[in-house]
Write a structure and sequence with these properties.
The protein is 50% helix and 14% strand. It is built from 30 helices and 22 strands. Helix 4 (93-118) packs antiparallel against helix 5, helix 7 (188-205) packs antiparallel against helix 8 and helix 18 (511-525) runs antiparallel to helix 22 (618-628). The protein starts with 6 loop residues before the first helix and ends with a helix.
């Protein structure tokens, strides 16, 4: 049998080990080290054994993953923690050691992030390695013990790991090579090369310098040999020398180990190469009983348990076994979740059948009640027939009948028997109906218990995949601290929704997108400390990272309080790159469309390219990776207030409470948590406004003959909401043909404001399993998936927040007509000024120049005028200091509005200082003029802005 492996197979194994280390092991170990660093910084005593084990695991895992730079950094960090554990670091040395440990963990995090995000294996800072080595040398010089006692400084756990690797893994490699030599198999050179690679891997993983040196020394001689006869003596000599050096090393490492112990004759090594017990040579204490060899399963379960004694220990007790963890492949977890969902769907089907059985029992009960009078009539007829004087009977009649008269003996005929049988059948039907009723009630109780068990199982299966968001979010704190130092800024990460449970697999896949967003928030969004002081902002900037669940989605937001996104810069960059046509003005573009341009490939508004941002790939990567998770990313910004990115991801399996709504012949589901109110249609629109005369305002509802119209608006809790049939909000090519008026109005939670829709009726409210769609075809964003009914019917589930765009989408012809008419009208200028004299003066100047003027006493009145005119204002002139709503807040509202964000604005104020000017410009003011202003200067500025806007 040939035990050699194909190099391609070895490469695939190494790549798999690398991914496992980077995605699963390294983040867990790094979190342990960071928590220990926080405890040391706070003056607390951490679990040094756990920290040493984590550093050692990083070093060993990096060696297996073929990341030598990471391994070289983890080794001195482990030595530093080991020295701290042994009390060798005292006095002023603790501050130096703490600084080295903090810098080492930051560098370790950078190396891991670089390997995860870009696949690059960077080398650690040589100065840091030199500083760690120098500090370790200082500690050695201060030791008072003899050099020979250095072996005792190795922790028992580390001794156990090294001993296990040498007596198990190395011995398995030696025995495999021996079998190859004894059986004279072909490809000896490949077998020896594979053996050298395995030994070198062990040496680097466990820092066995003697093993690495031996392999490096013998490798040239092996490569020079081409004939198998030359290789065999060298291989045999190498096997002998390696075993001899290993025994000497183990004897020095653990004096209690028997130096004459030959590992290849050790019966305590099982076939899998795992030791059955501890390899220590000391005998158990008198109070300890010997134990049988462990099975491979038990050996695997105890691999990660630290043994603090050098003598064999007893098997873990039952509580320890319950606390152990088991790794399950993601595919199996998804299969388990899918099976639970199918069980819940099956329960819905059984519940439907139980309801049908109950309904059949009730129907049978009514039939029995209806038959009861017939039964009474049959009984009366039976009694009458038994007392009648019957005619003489034929021969063969019982002779005793002649001996008794009718009062002394009843006579029965065949009709009597039929009537009696009929009466008995009715009694049996009634008894069977009672039995069915009892079975139906018991079945309902059993199904209720099964549903409770299924809900509990569903919670357990879903919770097993979930982790608190805090565990994931805290990873970005060290990253932000490093970015602060590199960018010379000060910011703090604020985490909300720490206890929100999120799918761990989803969080791991969001690592790269959130890293890009965090980099952009600090580099692009957060201002420099000097600029923040001029804007009256605190030096310490805030970056918020939060998570929450909304219905069938998990929502993750990252927001900053920086300068926001400059929409004019985005517009200019889009023109430069050809993303937008030259004939398109900024005011013609919806604000949402303009913001989404930052997700275009190779799009960046940065003036300079740095290693943090400005390369034009970050935001494109964010959108691509989020879309691969079948999610969406949204952006919103307010000038000088900050930018918020919202990532929405669907849950893979969700038991969702939905409202089943009837629209014509179609049944749709709406998540119950998105329904704000349910109203009768007549009460919602008013009894006196049921019909809309003239032209239809809402298409798609009504038959050919005399359709009833639906109101376009309604008032709900003081708000005027647009009202449309739900079907008209869906982009279907054919409209619903409904001949009657809707009966129910639903007020739904939209993206930014409530949304009113009309439906025929509410069929039911149930908790149903939501099945997401696959990626076979493109799925509209408003469809969350399908809710499965007990009948097997798949009901589409609609997310109301995606319907607002459909509702508010303007008619292109109407917009074109309005645009033409606006071009021929007199420009309208809105004035927001609290001073009566200044307001009248501006009104006279602008009116004399031929403008239509709308004067307002403060910012709040100006905002109401904008709402009344639906943004049909050409320019705004505003003061800063006004009651109720000042000019800064008015400008911020306008720039954050979806339609009026591009309104040209002139700030006219007596505050001519740099702080007020920069504040206004950061909020998006187009011009900043001081009072008093010359009429010619004001009119020239207005003409310039209107010309640019119409261009």
């Amino acid at each position: 049998m040939n035990y050699s492996l194909d190099p391609n197979v070895l490469a695939a194994i190494a790549e798999e080990a690398r991914q496992c280390f980077l995605e699963e092991d390294a983040p867990m170990y790094l979190q342990v080290l960071q928590e220990g660093l926080q405890q040391l910084t706070a003056g607390q005593s951490p679990d040094y054994q756990g920290l040493m084990r984590a550093a050692h695991s990083v070093k060993g895992g990096a060696g297996v993953a073929q990341m030598p730079g990471l391994s070289r950094l983890a080794h001195p960090l482990e030595d530093l923690l080991e020295a701290w554990n042994e009390g060798k670091i005292q006095g002023n040395q603790q501050e130096t050691a703490l600084g080295l440990l903090q810098e080492g963990l930051e560098t370790l995090t950078e190396l891991l992030e670089s390997a995860q995000a870009q696949g690059m294996d960077l080398e650690p800072d040589p100065q840091l390695l030199t500083a760690l080595t120098s500090f370790k040398g200082q500690l050695r010089q201060e030791e008072t013990s003899a050099p020979e006692a250095s072996s005792t400084s190795v922790s028992p756990g580390k001794v156990r790991l090294i001993r296990q690797a040498l007596t198990s893994d190395l011995e398995a490699c030696l025995q495999t090579l021996e079998e190859h030599l004894q059986e004279q198999r072909p490809n000896l050179h490949e077998a020896i090369a594979l053996f050298l690679d395995e030994c070198l891997l062990l040496g680097e993983a466990y820092s066995l310098e003697w093993l690495v040196a031996k392999i490096d020394a013998v490798s040239p001689a092996i490569d020079d040999c081409t004939h198998p006869d030359e290789l065999r003596p060298l291989a045999k000599q190498l096997i002998t020398e390696l075993r001899s050096q290993r025994d000497r090393y183990l004897a020095k490492l653990d004096p209690n180990l028997d130096p004459n112990l030959d590992p290849n004759l050790n019966p305590k090594l099982d076939q899998g190469g795992s030791p059955g017990k501890s390899q220590g040579g000391s005998s158990p204490s008198p109070g300890t009983t010997s134990e049988p060899p462990q099975t491979p399963e038990k050996a695997a379960n105890t691999t990660n348990i630290e043994n603090t004694n050098s003598v064999p220990t007893k098997a873990p007790s039952s509580p320890s076994l319950r606390q152990q963890q088991l790794r399950i492949p993601l595919e199996r977890m998804e299969l388990m979740g899918s099976l639970v969902g199918e069980l819940i769907v099956s329960h819905e089907r059984l519940t439907l059948q139980q309801r049908q059985l109950k309904q059949a029992s009730q129907t049978l009960r009514r039939i029995v009640q209806q038959v009861k009078p017939v039964r009474d009539d049959v009984q009366t007829l039976y009694d009458r027939l038994s007392t009648l004087d019957h005619p003489p009977q034929a021969d063969g009649v019982n002779e005793e009948a002649g001996e008794f008269d009718l009062l002394e003996l009843d006579r029965y005929t065949a009709l009597h028997s039929s009537l009696q049988t009929f009466e008995e059948l009715i009694a049996q039907v009634q008894e069977t109906r009672l039995d069915i009723d009892i079975v139906s009630r018991e079945l309902a109780q059993d199904l209720g218990q099964v549903r409770r068990d299924l809900d509990h199982l569903y919670d357990e299966v879903t919770t097993s995949r979930l982790v608190p968001f805090k565990i994931f979010a805290e990873r970005f704190i060290p990253q932000l601290e490093r970015l602060n130092r590199r960018c010379d800024k000060t910011s703090r990460l604020e985490i909300s929704g720490e206890n929100v449970l999120v799918d761990r697999i989803v969080l791991e896949q969001l690592q790269t997108p959130l890293t890009h967003l965090l980099n952009n928030a600090l580099d692009h969004g957060i201002e420099a400390p000097e600029e923040r002081r001029l804007l009256s902002k605190p030096d310490l900037a805030q970056i918020h990272l939060g998570a929450r669940t909304e219905g069938s989605e998990v929502v993750i937001t990252i927001a900053d309080d920086g300068r926001g996104i400059n929409l004019e810069s985005v517009y200019r960059k889009a023109l430069e790159r050809g993303v937008l046509g030259n004939g398109v003005s900024m005011s013609q573009l919806p604000r949402e469309m303009l913001l989404n341009l930052i997700f275009e490939p190779s799009f960046s508004t940065a003036d300079a390219v740095s290693d943090i941002s400005g390369r034009g790939v970050g935001m494109d990567v964010v959108r691509t990776q989020v879309q691969q998770l079948r999610g969406s990313v949204e952006v919103d910004t307010v000038p000088s207030k900050g930018t918020t990115f919202t990532i929405r991801l669907p849950l893979s399996l969700n038991l969702l409470s939905v409202l089943l709504c009837q629209i014509g012949q179609q049944l749709v589901a709406i998540p119950s948590d998105t329904v704000l109110d349910v109203l009768p249609y007549d009460d919602a629109v008013g009894m006196g406004q049921l019909f809309v005369p003239g032209e239809r305002l809402t298409p798609g509802l009504g038959a050919m003959n005399g359709p009833e119209e639906v109101e376009q608006s309604m008032t709900w809790r003081g708000q005027v909401l647009s009202l449309s049939p739900l079907w008209d909000l869906l982009p279907y090519p054919t409209a619903a043909t409904v001949s009657h008026r809707p009966r129910v109005v639903l007020v739904l939670r939209g993206a930014t404001e409530p949304l009113a829709v009309a439906i025929d009726r509410i069929a039911d409210e149930r908790q149903l399993i939501l099945k997401p769609f696959d990626d076979t075809v493109a799925i509209p964003p408003y469809l969350a998936g399908c809710a499965i009914l007990g009948t097997g019917e798949a009901v589409p589930t609609i997310l109301p927040r995606f319907l607002k765009a459909k509702l508010a989408s303007p008619d292109p012809q109407l917009q074109e007509t309005r645009g033409l008419s606006r071009g021929t009208e007199v420009p309208t200028i809105l004035i927001a000024e609290d001073s009566t004299g200044a307001r009248r003066s501006l009104e006279r100047i602008l009116s004399s120049a031929g403008f239509a003027v709308v004067p307002c006493r403060d910012g709040q009145e100006a905002w109401k005028k904008l709402e009344q005119r639906q943004g049909q204002v050409d320019l705004l002139v505003t003061d800063i200091e006004m009651p109720i709503l000042n000019g800064f807040d008015l400008l911020a509202r306008i720039r954050a509005h979806g339609s009026w964000y591009g309104l040209p604005t002139i700030v006219l104020t007596s505050r001519t200082g740099d702080r007020h000017r920069q504040k206004a410009q950061s909020l998006g003011a187009n011009r900043y003029l001081g009072k008093p202003v010359a009429p010619a200067e004001l009119l020239a500025t207005i003409e310039d802005l209107l010309t640019v806007d119409h261009r």
